[in-house]
Amino acid sequence: MDANLNALLRTRLAELAAAHRLRRLRPWHWHNGTLHDADGRTLIDASSNDYLGLSQHPLVKARAAEWAERHGAGAPASRLVTGTRDITLAVEQRLANFKRCEAALLFSTGFQANATAIPALAKLGTGGTAIFSDELNHASIIHGVRGAKSRTGIFRHNDLDHLDDLLKQHSGRKLIITESVFSMDGDRADLPALVQLAERHGATLYVDEAHATGVLGPQGRGLAAECEGGVDVVMGTLGKAFGAFGAYIAGSRTLIDWLVNRCPGFIYTTALPPAVLGAVDAALDLVPGMDEERAHLARNSQRLRDALAQRNYDTLASSTQIIPAVIGSEADALAAAQRLEDAGVLTVAIRPPTVPEGTSRLRLTLNSRLDEQGMQRLLDAVAASLPLRY
Ligand SMILES: Cc1ncc(COP(=O)(O)O)c(C=O)c1O
Question: In terms of C-beta density within 10 A (0-12 exposed, 13-18 middle, 19 or more buried), how is residue 291 classed?
Fold first, then answer.
């Protein structure tokens, strides 16, 4: 055994604690779809990504149980061995139709999809592929970009002039990567403009729709669906608005064939289990018809942004169900989250390295299950717990 390992880890953890950056796992209890803390107190969930409340939907739960009963608890092999069942292919076809793409491929998680599909795409082209990535892209994208070991240009957040300048400096194959809704700021990329820019430079456009799928775009199909055919690689997750688990990449049949052959995060891992496929299948039945829920969510999100703005909190360029309230220091963000929790609202303080230095924040996320009484409780808690800023 390494006699020094634990001592070294303790030292490093103490350093994180001193910088207010230590992360801890806390248990939360859900009873009949309601969140409780360890003392049994009911809390308003303003921090999960279950944007349409589908993880608690009777149809989603029932189909997960039914498919587990009918097909078994596990896959249990990788897709290229015996993990591809008729139900897997059927769900992939439904996802492709939902995203209005030719084909789709399921992944175990969004992290795995981004971390391994980006290097697989960067392998194309004899001279390699240069990658252009928004500076606020998710950690899984950063992981994928680093793993690709390609020439890389990081463009300023949503700054398409900067991206244009970087693209002009490269003559070989190019891959542009952005999120359509940014996970920590809740703002949107200008996809129609990105599509045009990509076309002008002959670049491939890769869009992560983790926080848009189910919530935005026509019938919740995401923002890429608003520029049909313009986005080459559409990635999305199924553990957020779909209330299930896993992720997908959608695009042309050829793109999917390439990933099946060259993407290690797809090839060398066990297929998604039937219960997850059942939940996704049910979510696909429900999501297109949830316009009312999406409108309710958008209205409440605006009300929360207004309430925070009245108290002079910067909500950045949020225009979605993800609403940051920038606080500044790690310690102040943690204290604000604690005050809100004491007032009955669960939010999480997001600190570096997830967000840039000095922009520690509360990341409030709403879901369409929040009724008027709950919303009022949330607004009252914000008013009581977040002091006016000057
Ligand atoms: C933008 C973005 N992409 C990818 C992921 C990873 O997805 P998953 O949770 O399925 O691993 C997340 C998750 O938090 C995300 O916010």
Answer: exposed
Which atom of ligand 1 is least distant from the CA of 140?
4
Q: Is the pLDDT of residue 125 over 80?
A: no
Out of 124-128, 191-195, 347-351, least confident range: 124-128
**Cα separation of 125 and 121, whole Å?**
9
Q: Which among 294, 313, 301, 306 has a CA at the least distance from the CA of 187?
A: 301
Phi and psi for 344 in degrees, rounded to 5?
Answer: 95, 20
Residue length of the chain: 390
Print burial letters for 139-178: b (CB count within 10 Å at least 16), e (below 16).
Answer: ebbbbbbebbebbbbbbebbebebbeebbeebeebbbbbb
Cα angle value 69/285/59 (rounded, 5°): 45
* 166's tokens: 């970087």
Q: State residue 40's pLDDT score.
A: 87
DSSP string, 325-340: EEEESHHHHHHHHHHH
The reported pTM is 0.96
Tokens coding 13 = 């953890």
As a whole number of angstroms, the distance between CA 79 and CA 96 comes to: 18
Q: Is the CB of 178 under 6 A from ligand 1?
A: no
In short, whether 278's Cβ falls inside 6 Å of ligand 1 is: no
Give CA separation, 214 vs 49, 138, 209, 264, in Å.
11, 19, 9, 27
Q: Is the CB of 247 under 6 A from ligand 1?
A: yes
pLDDT of the residue at 29: 87
- Quote the Cα angle for 369-372-376, to 5°: 115
Q: Is 331 exposed, middle or buried (0-12, 13-18, 19+ CB in 10 A)?
A: middle
